[in-house]
Amino acid sequence: MKRNHIILSATICLLAFGLRTAANQIVYPWRACPAIAPVGKSIDILYDNPAALPVDSIILSGPYNRVVLSADTVQRGRFEYDSFTRAAVGTLIRITIPEGTPEELYDLIVKSGGETNVSRRSVKVLNAFRNPHRFIHISDPHMSRQWVGTPENGYAKELELLDRFIEVANIIHPEYVIVTGDIIHDYTRFDADSLGWGGVVRSGFDHPPLAEEKYKNFFEGAHGFSGVYGFDAPVFSIPGNHDFYGPKADDYTAKAAQWNKLMGRRVYGFSYFDTRIVASDDYLGDPVIDIPNQAPMSGLQGRLLDDFLNIHGSGKLRVMAQHRHDRVDTSFMNRHRINILLNGHNHQPHEEFVGTTPTLSIRPGAVCRSGEIANWEKILGFFRLFTVDGDTFHYTPPLRFCENPTAPYDQLVMKLTLEFSKDNTGLSDSNEAILTNCFNLDLPGCHVRFVMPKNKDGYRVTGGEVYQTIENSRVVVLDVRADVSANSHKTVTVSARRLPDG
What we know:
Layout: H1 10-16, E1 26-28, E2 35-38, E3 42-47, E4 55-61, E5 66-69, E6 73-80, E7 88-96, E8 104-112, E9 115-126, E10 133-138, E11 146-149, E12 154-156, H2 159-172, E13 176-180, E14 188-190, E15 200-202, H3 211-220, E16 235-238, H4 252-263, E17 268-272, E18 275-279, H5 300-312, E19 317-321, H6 330-336, E20 340-342, E21 350-354, E22 359-363, H7 376-379, E23 382-389, E24 392-395, E25 399-400, E26 416-420, E27 430-437, E28 443-453, E29 459-462, E30 465-471, E31 475-484, E32 488-496
Parallel strand pairs: 2-9, 10-13, 11-14, 13-16, 18-19, 19-20, 20-22
Antiparallel strand pairs: 1-3, 3-7, 4-5, 4-8, 6-7, 8-9, 10-23, 11-12, 14-15, 17-18, 21-22, 23-24, 23-25, 26-27, 27-32, 28-31, 29-32, 30-31
């Protein structure tokens, strides 16, 4: 049974105020491809607005603050975001992140013609890019391959491990997370045995859980378990060979269009300071036009990624994400001098060098249950942490986030924990956070968020560095970074200052 968590989310606030939401009208930033923006910079929102309703306002909503924006520009036209399916929207909205906006992962809200549309956890605002910066790579969660409970009222078994991994990732506090495919599964296994096999297998449009529910589990979680929206970092996802549900395996247009409908962008690029990241799809699109069987990046998606790198420049370091580990377009790698190729597909961790740059081709293993119980020691519970510093990088070996990934949820032994000595919801004017790092590596910049009652004299923090304070009418939020050495504990304390009156 999942432990009780106190959740303060913008979505709960939205529901409390009775706002009506419409799915899939904000196509970017959205599920597959969120946005990262420093203050003072602009974001172009792709908005599906066929009735050309007026855009009334745009809001960034975080758990402790809201920022109300007005559109810089609203353009009408045809704005294509998938060159294979020709998926497009009719409205492009440009906004600018105002100075003073707190660093946070925000819900994006667009109010238009009496409707309220929400793209959850889709805009990461930064005071400035960090150099060096860190990102986490995971792959092949296969969310909903195993289903617990009834088809209509169950949940993906994989959520049990993902939920606990998110706790670890949020302490590490990377700048972003990349998931290299097989995020859901094209069939559903009910009543699996202890190794994740057997039971009843279903697939298709007519048997719940439907594709919408599978993706909902991946992002929103279910039955008290957190999905991807539980990460405090933006999560970028690409397709794998199992990332469809219902269409036939050779109906490439239907598979890619389903991704567009439920995820948004399928092939894209984004930047983090001087790092360029390109995300490809080596499974859903047509193997002749979009993804040629030979030289995969010579098709439609390769041209899109070429354009991104040509327009935005090569930066100082280039990362490419694809699903399949054994389908590398070395011509593209060499032409753009790709430094890191992230992949999955094969669930066993691996690394090698390819091409002339040379390019590090690497996969992390599988972080969730996906039928790998029998091979868990080699495969299950793994992620990798990368640190990028200008034109150089380093990376960890495969890190298992818990000691025993085959154990029941309540018996998982975590490798990194954060425990508060008191309630951390703004009721106590002092607190203590204990960070325990059981990894065999130092973890700089671990994140602690103290939620404190308002105090006119402020707060004193020891054991870490306060990098941000957010204050609203009820509480003061102190965001703290703390360095935690390998196999050690770190205590961070906060207490109210008491200055003499007068």
